[in-house]
Amino acid sequence: MDVPEGPDEVAWFRFGPRPGEVGSAVIAGHFGWKNDIPAVFDYLHRLREGDKVVVIDEEGTTATFVVRAVHVYGKDESAFDVFYSSDGKAHLNLVTCTGDWNVAKKTRPERLVVFTDLE
């Protein structure tokens, strides 16, 4: 999965479904951009079970998802369940980094994932 280029961009896992289609659509975005520039997922950590996420595609079609769970993975921990589901339903999983910035590695040590289900 690509990393978004800028703080206001997201990356979609193109080998999976689009948001609203059956399976697990995955979108990644940045948290904590340099020089205090706002990033698209700066507030992702505030989502809780039952909150709603609305996605609007390029044609103006909306899909509403409900947060099912929030999980933090280690940077190198297996996250197979983020990209795969077999229940025949549509999911949207949002991914960003979290934890303290590692200057030497230029990354954060963990990944925050918000799991959602199509309403």
From TrEMBL:
Record carries keyword tRNA processing: no
Any Pfam family matching the protein: Sortase
InterPro entries the UniProt entry points to: Sortase, Sortase_dom-sf, Sortase_F
GO terms assigned for molecular function: hydrolase activity
Name of this chain's protein: Peptidase C60 sortase A and B
Domain of life: Bacteria
Keyword Hydrolase applies: yes
Record key words, sorted: Hydrolase
Gene3D superfamilies from the UniProt entry: Sortase
Transmembrane feature ranges: none
Organism per entry: Candidatus Kaiserbacteria bacterium RIFCSPHIGHO2_02_FULL_50_50
